[in-house]
Amino acid sequence: MTSLEDLRKINARCIHCRACQYAYSGEPDREGETEEYTGMLQGCPAGIYFGWEGYFNSGKQWMARAFLNGELPASKEFLEVAEACTTCGMCETQCPNYIDTVSVTEALRAAIIDAGVEPLDKHKGFGDRVGNEEMRNPYAEPRSERTKWFDGIVDNKDAKVAYFVGCTASYRQQQIAEHTASILKKLGVDFTVLSDEVCCGSPLLRTGLRKTFNTVMEENLELFKDFDLVLFSCAGCYKTFTNDYTEQSGKELSFKTRHAVEYVYDLIGEGKVKIEKPYNEKVTWHDPCHSIRHIGIAIEKRILKEYNNWLLDSRKAEKAKEAHYEIPRVVLDAIPGLELHEMYRIKGDSFCCGAGGGVKAQFSDMALSTAKERMKEAASTGADVIMTSCPFCVTNFTDAIKSLKEEEKETGKDLSHLGSKMKVVELLELLDDLI
User: Are 177 and 197 in contact (CB under 8 A)?
Assistant: First the structure.
């Protein structure tokens, strides 16, 4: 597995220019719908919330260097600062030196824990639960209940397509799993779900619990090795399989991966799906960090790794990345009546929902504050619906709206300009109603 020491040369490329702190750092004159969302904006959830340099990626990169050089010892306080990051990858998008900032932060967390510091309590809790063979999920639910929602054929050995459901859709947001399975049935996909599926390990890798992550990664790689295609409805699971399993195992996947929204996009492009039912709503789209930005960055890096001419190949990589960012927009454009109103920070520059990287569990106030900032940005577009395709984004936005409504009730103030009247809609759930 990739260690912090393995990333020393990559980390050394950081010149502390602080470009990573911003969204649209290359477009200082860009105008938005409102004066508040215009020009250069800070884009780091942790830096915005806490305000200190150490919470921004620029500070974390230099602390990682100090740790590697023996100048900064491991401690609980150090770990708390390192863990206060959603690992959204906004900093990685902005970095002019192409530093794998998220990989460095995740490796730093693991290195501090490996040095003897106890994991933070919430992270240790779900690490213990995923490590428990009778659970293998962070919600402490029995493995026997994982596929209870599914009315199709479980463990169908003849199927070549598998749907990896993930822990959140299996135990907490089963409607996402049900709608995804329904879409696949309507599209005539011969697929199955597996009763032995375990947590993808994303929350473990993000928070430095690498030993347990490695265990579940190996279990899943063995479990799905004979399938041609594995589909996902969870952005985090999709990114973990697609990017992290290859990086951490050092092996290419034996199967292809695709998010369910991408799969629908493929069929729309092939003319096999045409949506005729209208959805007459004003919608703004939130790009999930894991399935949009992180996958886009990986596409770009894969192309640049093989470059022959940096100028030409960097342009090619940028185009490929941008093409990926357009995928959900193509799907939205195929829905009659849907009126898309884009937020200021979108695609690779999209502001995080605040739930990732173990933050929702350990730093709930930061997670909620970040979601409220994104809801405010969504409300500024004039849209009535914020749409996305990620269980964590759905949860955190729903919590933000609930908090705003409670505040309205307590103060008597109208907070609709902050998003209190908006609806959160999961795109896969909508597509199931329309296809």
Answer: no
The answer to whether 183 and 264 are in contact (CB under 8 A) is: yes
Sequence ranges of the domains in the chain:
1-118, 142-271, 275-435
| Secondary structure of residue 164 in the 3-state scheme | strand
Computed from CA positions of residues 136, 139, 144, 148, in that sequence, does the dihedral angle turn out positive or negative?
negative
Distance CA 369, CA 216 (A): 32
For 212-275, the DSSP string reads: HHHHHHHHHHHHTTT-SEEEES-HHHHHIIIIIIHHHHSS--SSEEEEHHHHHHHHHHTTS---
Angle at 183 between CA 270 and CA 169, to 5 degrees: 130
Q: 417 to each of 280, 284, 285, 378, 404, how far by Cα in Å?
A: 21, 14, 17, 9, 11
- In this structure, what token pair is assigned to residue 17? 């220019």
Q: What is the pLDDT of residue 125?
A: 98
- Which backbone phi and psi does 11 adopt, to 5 degrees? -60, -35
The single-letter DSSP state of residue 23 is E
β-strand 282-285 against 339-340: which pairing, if any?
A: parallel
User: Across the chain, what does the average pLDDT equal?
Assistant: 97
Q: How far apart are CA 375 and CA 196, in angstroms?
A: 37
C-alpha to C-alpha distance for 99 and 96, rounded to whole angstroms:
8
> Can you give the pLDDT at residue 311?
87
CA atoms within 13 A on the CB side of 120: 24
Q: What's the DSSP call for residue 360?
A: H
The length of the chain is 435
**266-288 pLDDT tens trace:** 999 999 999 999 999 999 999 99
Q: What is the pLDDT of residue 386?
A: 98
Structure token pair of residue 89: 């990858």
Q: Which structure tokens are listed for 166? A: 């993930």
In CATH, what class is 142-271? alpha beta
CA 37 to chain centre: 23
pLDDT digits (tens, 9 = 90+) for 365-383: 999 999 999 999 999 999 9
Dump pLDDT digits (tens) for 194-220. Answer: 999 999 999 999 999 999 999 999 999
Q: What is the widest separation between alpha-carbon atoms in the chain?
A: 62
- Which letter, b or e, does each residue of 311-327 get, where b requires 16 or more Cβ atoms within 10 Å of its Cβ? eeeeeebeeebeebbeb
How many CA atoms within 13 Å lie on the side-chain side of 396? 31
